[in-house]
Fold S-adenosyl-L-methionine-dependent methyltransferase.
Amino acid sequence: MSDSIFRKDGTAQGVAKQRYIETLAKPDQRVINDPYAKRFVLGASLITLMGHKLSVWITQKFAPGFHEHLISRTRFIDDLVEKNAASGSEQYIILGAGYDLRAHRLELPFSLKVFEVDQPEVQVRKRSKLPKDLPNASNVSYVGVDFNRQSLTEQLLAAGFDQSKRTIITLEGVSQYISKDATASTIKELSELTNHSGSTFFISYVDESLKNDPEACFGKGYPKATKRAETIKNLSAKVGEPWVSFFNPEEIETLLSENGFALTQNKTLADLNDEYFTPVGRRIPEHHIFKLEHFVVAESNTTAT
Ligand SMILES: C[S@@+](CC[C@H](N)C(=O)[O-])C[C@H]1O[C@@H](n2cnc3c(N)ncnc32)[C@H](O)[C@@H]1O
């Protein structure tokens, strides 16, 4: 067995770290709140000591906008899930859930059934760190799947997934780590599994221009864009989870539409600055805008009868 401190969960820890840093901001200045993130972060005591401002400043030295990008992704999905749950979705599938605690930290209707899907090793580690008195715990089922090798359908059905109910599905920060075929087959399976149920699908993807035109992935004047693009790409490889798949917007739209999902939104941090950061006095300047990952929402073309 490897003695790495990361056991398939290095990137999940990385995202949890940014959520913890954000949670340390003053309540009227923070964009998201994740009271559980700290449990999954190595060196959390040091981050607590440094506080929000210094921790964000240090992250900026690595890549301006990196923290805000991940936080805007979390907030965008929080809003989407809350809106969908309030308007009648009865099930929520979190694909590649990692250390996402949305099922417990958002105020979701008790009737919403949540299915968390990830690699079994990551789920075991997650569950060992969760508090005993977790809100909404009885509504969450854990489904252990490797997207590159296994199919989801059987496991989701065995876990009690109901094909007739309206469902929201999120694939957050995952498509870059799995093969394009695995992303395509996951979307296909979910489209078939949720057929006629009026589902909503969220997927994030890394823009393929990162490879041939890195400057396009950042705001105007972003410092050392090409070099930074390389550093960011290598960061996850260092914890054993390299980025292997990149998409262009048309490719994603086609993939979704071939599976009965119509694209309704495609956003980056540049689009969410006004909505999330300006109101809390933290507007991100153009030369710190980080937009190499897109946040896409699609709706299934069919509705429940
Ligand atoms: C960057 S983390 C994102 C976690 C979570 N969605 C978030 O945003 O906090 C990527 C997640 O994808 C999961 N993942 C990567 N490859 C996978 C695979 N082949 N099958 C299932 N899950 C996978 C990892 O275990 C990890 O939890």
Remarks:
- Strands lie at 91-95, 113-118, 140-144, 167-171, 200-206, 261-267, 293-300.
- The mean pLDDT is 93.
- The CA atoms of residues 133 and 146 lie 29 Å apart.
